[in-house]
Design brief:
The chain is of the alpha/beta class. It has a single domain, classed as P-loop containing nucleotide triphosphate hydrolases (Rossmann fold, 3-Layer(aba) Sandwich). The chain contains five helices and eleven strands. The strands form three sheets. Strands 5-2-6-7-1-8 form a six-stranded parallel β-sheet, with helices on both faces. A three-stranded antiparallel β-sheet has the order 10-9-11. A two-stranded antiparallel ribbon has the order 3-4. The longest helix is centred in the first third of the chain and has 14 residues. The termini are far apart. The model has no long low-confidence stretch (mean pLDDT 86).
Length: 198
């Protein structure tokens, strides 16, 4: 039976690497996959999923508000597809996550979504919140803080390496912009002010 999976982590944990390896495993066994990534995240090029270790693959893209049930259904109409993989799943909106859940239930295709759980302010992304609520299975892709503890948070830095404590939730970037930390070191970096309600 098909399921909706959510593989989540902080930045630089290897989510895209895991996604690409899982897709390769299907293809190696003669099965087809369908890869999707956020349209506006073109750091690796338009319609590309790329890993920091140098592997990548072409992908279809999704835009904000796009009907992903219809998109998956259209892909299935072109031929066999054993699994759908979604990179940058934190950029989905809640309706799109529901559309993916419908695709799993009504079209009987497994969907594996990979994305960040929280932003640099320690807040859930809308897509991640919906996936945490609706996914049949959730798996954490782990990375570590500079202290060796599991990293669960991320800070955003400016060009001068200063930690930012405000700004838009979405800002595309990689190692030059984001650093994954354990909660204790995130709190220290944020001067423990980001989560106060004063």
């Amino acid at each position: 039976m098909a399921k909706l999976y959510f593989h989540y982590s902080t930045m630089n944990a290897g989510k895209s690497t895991v996604l690409l390896q899982a897709s390769h495993n299907y293809i190696e066994r003669g099965m087809q996959t369908y890869l999707l990534t956020a349209q506006f995240d073109n750091r690796a090029g338009d319609g590309q999923i790329a890993s920091r270790i140098g592997i990548g693959s072409s992908a279809d893209t999704f835009a904000p508000g796009e009907d992903l049930f219809a998109k998956v259904k259209a892909r299935l109409a072109t031929g066999p597809c054993q699994c759908v993989f979604i990179d940058e799943a934190q950029f989905l909106d809640a309706d799109q996550v529901w559309q993916l859940a419908r695709a799993v239930d009504d079209l009987n295709v497994p969907i594996m979504a990979y994305g960040l759980r929280v932003d640099f302010m320690g807040e859930l992304f809308p897509g991640s919140a919906a996936l945490l609520a609706l996914a049949d299975e959730m798996r954490e892709v782990r990375t570590i803080c500079h202290c060796g503890k599991k990293a669960t948070m991320v800070v955003r830095k400016d060009d001068q390496d200063n930690v930012l404590t405000g700004g838009d939730q979405v800002q595309i970037g990689g190692n030059e912009t984001y650093v994954s930390l354990c909660r204790r070191h995130w709190r220290a970096a944020m001067d423990d002010t980001a989560n106060r309600a004063d």
